[in-house]
Amino acid sequence: MPHTDSNFSEDLTTLPSQADVVVIGGGVMGCSTLYHLAKEGVGNAVLLERNKLTSGTTWHSAAQVRALRSTQNLTNLIKYSISLYQALEEETGQNVGWINKGSLSIATNPDRLTHIRRQEALAGLYGVEAVSVSTEEAKDRWPLMHSDDVIGAVWSPDDGRVSPSDLCAALIKGARKRGASIFEDTGVTGIITEGNKIKGVETSRGVIATKHIALCTGLWSRQAAQMAGVEVPVWPCEHFYLLTRPIDGIFGNMPTLSDHDRHLYIRDDSGGLLVGCFEPMGKPIDPDRLGSDFAFQLLPEDWDHFEPMLKHALHRLPVLQDAEVKMLLNGPESFTPDGSFLLGESAETQGFYLGCGMNSVGVATGGGAGWALAHNIVHGAPPMDLHEADPKRFDPSWSDVAALSARVPEVLGKHYEITYPGRQWATSRGLRHLPLHQAWQTENAYFGQAYGYERPLYFDAKQTPTLTFDQPDWFDQVGREVNHVSKGIGVTDLSSFGKIDVTGKDALTALEWIMSNRIDRPVGSVIYSLMLNEKGCILSDLTIFRLDDQHFRLYVGTAALKRDLAWIKRQMKEDWDVSIHDVTLSYATLGLMGSDAANFAVSMGANWLNEIAYFRHAKGEIAGFEVMAGRLSYVGAPGWEITCASSDSMALYKFMKTKGVKPVGAFAQSAMRIEKQFLSYGHDIDTDNTPEQLGLMFAVKSKTPFIGLEAVKARAGKTPEKTLATLIFDQKDFTPIGNEPVLDISGQIIGKTTSASFGYRAGAPIALALLKTHAIHQDAKCHVNIAGNLASARISQRPAFDPDGNLMRSKL
Ligand SMILES: Cc1cc2nc3c(=O)[nH]c(=O)nc-3n(C[C@H](O)[C@H](O)[C@H](O)COP(=O)(O)OP(=O)(O)OC[C@H]3O[C@@H](n4cnc5c(N)ncnc54)[C@H](O)[C@@H]3O)c2cc1C
């Protein structure tokens, strides 16, 4: 029940003039963040809520807590929530209504069964209980369920639910006990910044000076962030659950029943049923329509919209036929363009931290997410890698309301979709086009969206592919594209890579401080480097071209641009003479790679390309166009990454095509980089990893001090607990996709795959895997658990293809 008559607020005349941290918003995210700030020792943290605590979305949440998420760290956040929710009553005396009855996920088609079996395997890896049960056992756990079409189920005993208002009450009690203060009926009306730094907040009751703000304003976060000059891609959808009056056959609390094929979750509620849904296409709602006084309110029932879900529910629970409906609850909840929340410091404004866009898991994640946000504010980084939630992951094109509001209904629907490999978004496509977009359309490219860009995944696409967990529809096309590289010459579009120019008298000094590799190399050098944090863990990997004594061009990952720019800018010292410019859109980059590279250069009249040594670059002309070519390879073949003015790229490509180059998409590139044990940020690399673990110490060679050096030195001589290795599968008919547990032959989990593909040149499925170091021996056997099936593989410390790199380094 909502706490409408709140006794949480301080005396409103005592609003302080200064606070170490101001938390804006008193939903579960704000309450949890405040509690954890206080626990971290921030004595004078203040929470400002313009209405009453929990009055936004939190009060009407179904408040289910499912432990398993798609990654280890997102799961860890919920595991943390569960232990917190179990402990809060003892600490604060406030019961939080934690009910641990588990959850049951049923499958009614073979792909869903594979999906839930993959989840079961992941649960084992992430330390969450989950076990396959027969249809009969599932029926025993949920006797009211119609089970004729159920072909399997997974039982997860750790899951539960909580009372969201009581949870917030307990968090507030705990925070207050430690010195934090709470002001209800106190709206933030302005945010004061100076030089892109937070200075304070203006409220309906006066100004509070502060250097740190935690923005926990739920579905209002986009508007609230604009007060600080920050773009936050959060937009609400209407979100429904049906409540019935008591029903015969419901005794006490029951597990949550998930029928994701029918978009439903079902549980008991006060002797009746609560039937919630994630329908395939949600209903967006403009937050301005709700207004700032939308407190403890709901949206109108919409039976037309809910009707298909009701039909599904009647199928699964025939008992509903005679049930008396209490209400169709419709409440707004916020969503982001990729379905993951926002946690961390904004790129635009220093000291402005986001904890919002919870995508319908705010109560489950809230305990852990509040802890991580408070940790981030106090210690400068979250307690673990949370790149999936990094607010800097979104392209600015998401500030377009039309794109955002068109995407979020699909995000809501995807919540329960089968996570097929290669699935793409249907809405808000075409936000950004590569300079060669039209050419790729002519080549029948099948596009995927990355950081707003439409990137060709593969070519010669006959129709929209049918998604599957087995051999993908695009298997043959990708094979042909790999062949272009191994037998001829292929071109990959790398134009979406972020490009950052660093210039000035102190550019070298700055980069030597920020980068782990030695940057002071001759003009013409190409340098692969890492950026490390103070813990010596990897923030980013990138390639640097030294164009001149005082001019460096950094090529960073497509989705890393905003994050890396913000990091680099924040490391600058006041007395340095350095300019930093994002030049991404000015230039196109084409990867021209293949065994026939040398002849191809000659046929283009660009013999100078063949003179460039490995990891060097040079300027020259191709067909009259000025280009810069770097000799390096992400696919293990000889060739160059060629950068030209974006405006020249179409003519240049057309010229290359007349000479016989063939387009190669991102899937083929990925297959080849995995064979070469080349890593990809977000898959094989994140901030939990060290260079030692990933075999990247060759890029930690700076002779001058750099960020992270002390931590690296402190680890010297110690064997890392985990190390990256290649797995070469014994049989071709397994399709690993990454994120699968790896077991030794005795059945012990020794790690997980981080990315995987069929290796066309190696002739077998290949995975990269982070394994316990002691388990890694050349050619040792292991098993990969793919949806419950054990695939045998061989462990290799070296790449599966051309392990010495002779091909890509070969003299041209
Ligand atoms: C029908 C439904 C079912 C759900 N079921 C589940 C579930 O089973 N499990 C789960 O984990 N999650 C569930 N959720 C989602 C979950 O409830 C939300 O993710 C969560 O409550 C969001 O909390 P929040 O703190 O981010 O936002 P809110 O609770 O909305 O809090 C934001 C607060 O910020 C305040 N605010 C806004 N602007 C200002 C300002 N300028 N100044 C001061 N204050 C301001 C607002 O008044 C509001 O109180 C469900 C949601 C809905 C709608």
Bound molecules: flavin-adenine dinucleotide
N/C terminus separation: 73 Å
The number of helical elements comes to: 19
Shape: globular
Overall average pLDDT:
96
**Main pleated-sheet profile:** 9 strands, mixed
Secondary structure category: alpha+beta
Helix % is 10-25%
**Strand tally, please?**
40
Amount of beta strand: 25-35%
Report the uncertain regions. Answer: none
Please state the CA-atom Rg, rounded to the nearest Å.
Answer: 27 Å
Structure description:
- This protein is an alpha+beta fold and 812 residues long.
- Helix content is 25%, strand content 27%.
- It has 19 helices and 40 strands.
- Strands 4, 5, 6, 13, 14, 15, 16, 17 and 18 form a nine-stranded mixed β-sheet that branches. The chain has a six-stranded mixed β-sheet with strand order 8-2-1-12-20-19. A six-stranded mixed β-sheet has the order 31-32-33-30-24-34.
- β1 (22-24), α1 (28-39) and β2 (46-48) form a beta-alpha-beta unit.
- α1 (28-39) runs parallel beside α9 (362-379).
- The longest helix is centred in the N-terminal third of the chain and has 21 residues, at 72-92.
- Bound molecules: flavin-adenine dinucleotide (FAD).
